[in-house]
From TrEMBL:
Domain (Nitroreductase) ranges: 8-173
One Pfam family linked to the record: Nitroreductase
Cofactor dependency: FMN
Name of the protein: NAD(P)H-dependent oxidoreductase
Coiled coil: none
Native source organism of the sequence: Paenimyroides ceti
Domain of life: Bacteria
Organism phylogeny: Bacteria, Pseudomonadati, Bacteroidota, Flavobacteriia, Flavobacteriales
Family: Belongs to the nitroreductase family.
Keywords on record: Flavoprotein, FMN, NAD, NADP, Oxidoreductase
Keyword NADP: yes
SUPFAM superfamilies: FMN-dependent nitroreductase-like
Keyword NAD annotated: yes
Amino acid sequence: MNFLDLAKRRYATKKYDAAQKISTEKIETLKEIIRLSPSSINSQPWKFTFVTDESLKKQLAAQSYMNENSINDVGLLVVFSVMEDIADFEKRNISVLPEGWIAFYEQMVKSNGDAATKSWMENQVYLSLGYFLSACISMGLDATPMEGIDRKAYKELLPQNGYNPLFAVTVGYADASDTMHPDVLPKSRFEQSEIIQSI
Ligand SMILES: Cc1cc2nc3c(=O)[nH]c(=O)nc-3n(C[C@H](O)[C@H](O)[C@H](O)COP(=O)(O)O)c2cc1C
């Protein structure tokens, strides 16, 4: 299937088939794919926590508002986290980069202050989300990005030393009764004329 067809098919799945769980092999492939995610100056300020343990998943589900049922039904929950401490990030991730890239970081990112630097780090993690969602559908997997999580509770439940959870993604197989499936509910997007300029 080409990318446009995959884009039409992927959707934020609301109901998963609890009887059909993702295989260990596919989970291992997803781990390697997300490791290869791109980031500005290859800064990689992230941690991806793959949760399959049912008991932990249930505790996380209870801290996930409207996403609780999806998380309980699905086989895999991936938590995307960002590095917490700028000094640690600079020591581990930035100092090892080529000089020109360090200069980019110093002049274009760090000079804007801590809040802007943290926001830039989070942007890198969000970029990996788009990449991950595309990877999932290319493997025949349904997925849902979820900002509807209690970040503080997630941090307490997970071994997240030095990282802050930002959002989570469920990965599995949609239930045939999911009314959000694009075959049932067509995708809602602005028209090209409203969002794309060709000059
Ligand atoms: C960053 C982000 C956070 C989202 N958080 C949630 C969420 O917590 N729960 C949910 O059911 N959908 C969530 N969504 C799904 C969006 O509502 C969905 O992508 C959007 O309505 C477009 O629909 P589609 O992805 O099915 O095409 C989120 C999407 C993104 C990109």
